[in-house]
Amino acid sequence: MKQYVFIALFTATLTLVLAWAIWRISLKYKLYPGIRERDVHKTPTPRLGGIAMYLGVVAAFAVSAAHPFFSIIWTDPQQPLAILGATSLIVIVGVADDLLDLDWMIKLGAQFLAAGIIAWFGELQIYALPIGGMTVWSGWVSFLLTVFSIVIVMNAVNFIDGLDGLVGGVALIANVIFFAYSYLLVRDTGASTYFTLASFIAAVLIGACVGFLPMNWSPAKLFMGDGGALMLGLLMAVSAIAITGQLDPAIIGDNDAFGRSQLLGAFIPIILPVVIVFLPLLDFGLAVIRRMRAGKSPFAPDRKHLHHRMLDLGHSDRDAVLIFYAWTAIVGLSVLLMYIGTGQDWPGEYLAGVVFGVVGIAACLVVTLLPPTPARSESSAPEHTPQEAS
């Protein structure tokens, strides 16, 4: 565990230092776009924070090559190099969009290319679904399922990049929960080492988010932009595929560590990676439906995302962000607790997860739908609310 703590702290420290430096350089050379018609913030703010996060991630991978605990990553360098190559591509295109506002077709093409690099050259694909021994029946099906899954998660994370600290905080909470899950899963399956590529990526992303949030908390000095949000989505999808999509279904179906609830133990490896990005996926789905019904591109920007609706209900920007944090934590922790309960001879931990989830979701619904302040119009949105990226 201490090795994971080290890599997270290293990434966080480097990301924070680089974010501050990029903020100063951006202000000095005016490396920020003007206010666009769809933007709701009124002060031009640099959007290059994704560069700091990217460099922190790259440095963490470099350190892993020299660290004995993580050196197993580089036994076959094809996977880490593919991950770094795809990440570099998506950050370059994202930063170009943050500065030049690229056409959505260019961004989408780059996303598919990056996902293809992961699936084809990195050979990180969804080979199996841990349900009753189910495997993906075709190499091309596995490839396409992997590529579309990565692209969907990338866009889902990017779509919620609309309030100061929102994406960074949600990704931080999601990766903490996913790290705990992947760590426990490896323990329960009786592996000889607690190290996995999924746990490593989650630890690195935890560090990148912790390092960036001080610069992004309301009022934000620096936005992560498309470069940062797309990178987070890409690596979160890759970490989930690295452990869930390649997990032998027989390990879960036959392992006594999952106790009485064999069915739940089989489904959670699929459920939890989806649950931790539940809000981004929900927002993404609603946005696609809304825009296509209006005869627009599913990637045409608008101001009708979930966080915008919360502002219009009367929540302040900070309150809305904290409520998103609560939703992510409640839903993710509930499933994690239920997973922990599957390894017990009595249902106490499982029931604790169910009760925690029901009570927590009920509380979140009340807070979300009954804000403490009167509803306000769009024109009164906070000055520092970031641009709608997608």
From TrEMBL:
Record's keyword terms, sorted: Cell membrane, Magnesium, Membrane, Metal-binding, Transferase, Transmembrane, Transmembrane helix
Listed transmembrane segments: 6-27, 48-74, 80-100, 112-131, 137-159, 166-186, 192-215, 227-247, 267-289, 320-340, 352-370
BP terms from Gene Ontology: cell wall macromolecule biosynthetic process; cell wall organization; lipopolysaccharide biosynthetic process
Coiled-coil stretches noted in the UniProt entry, renumbered to this chain: none
Pfam families on file: Glycos_transf_4
Binding site for Mg(2+): N158, D226
Entry GO terms, CC: plasma membrane
Cell membrane as UniProt keyword: yes
Top EC category: transferase
Subcellular location: Cell membrane
Membrane disposition: Multi-pass membrane protein
Record GO terms (molecular function): metal ion binding; UDP-N-acetylglucosamine-undecaprenyl-phosphate N-acetylglucosaminephosphotransferase activity
Cofactor: Mg(2+)
EC number annotated for this UniProt entry: 2.7.8.33
Superkingdom of origin organism: Bacteria
Protein known as: UDP-GlcNAc:undecaprenyl-phosphate GlcNAc-1-phosphate transferase
Organism: Microbacterium thalassium
